[in-house]
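Field guide to reading this record: the first block holds the primary sequence, the second block holds the structure written as discrete tokens, and the final block holds curator observations. Each block starts with its own label. This record concerns UbiE/COQ5 methyltransferase, catalogued under organism Melioribacter roseus.

BLOCK 1 — SEQUENCE
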Amino acid sequence: MAVFDSEADKYDQWYETPLGNFVNLLEKQAIYSLLNPSPGETVLDVGCGTGNYSIELAGRDCIVTGVDNSKNMIEIAKWKAASRNLKINFVFADVSLLPFDDNIFDSAICVAAVEFFGNRQKGIDEIFRVVKPGGKIVIGFINKNSGWGELYQSDYFKENTVFKYAGLLDIDEIRSIHPGELIEIKKTLFTPPDESEPSVEKEKIYAKSNKPGFIAALWQKK
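BLOCK 2 — STRUCTURE
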């Protein structure tokens, strides 16, 4: 059974909380500012989960393929897309062996999923393999060295959640990924995980003292 199969039914509940909704907003702003997708663009969403990014990209008239190794997540993603009358190709597959030819996608995204790759380097290399030369790869990471990173690496989370399977990265490790193709890094989510009433104004204040909980990076394939 895939790591996230048992989480599928409750996965989207996080986004319905005030903090979860705010975190999602900040992360998406960072991802889309780097990806800047155009209508008709073919986009691969790696570790698509329940399809949140795939659905938004399809809503922007992109041609989207979502891939995940959790059958339960994929089934929920398919249902959500169908209920919105969106055509998205959801594929059950392991990221370390993507079932796609070389150089076929205009761009790819992978948000908070690299941390759970069984073979991180192989999975990342596979993403680069299937993107066209000149195409964009945007990956979003949970920053290991942040309040959020500390939370997810705490004993409780390591013992009771899917984060027992996670390996978080710091900024230097992110920069070491295909360094010759790395274009830009964006940092966000300075708001700590114990903030009960998050806001844009508070985020600006926290940014003066806290480390970013989320890092988005853009590569352009050579």
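BLOCK 3 — OBSERVATIONS
Residues 5-220 form a domain with the Rossmann fold fold (CATH 3.40.50.150).
The chain has eight helices and seven strands.
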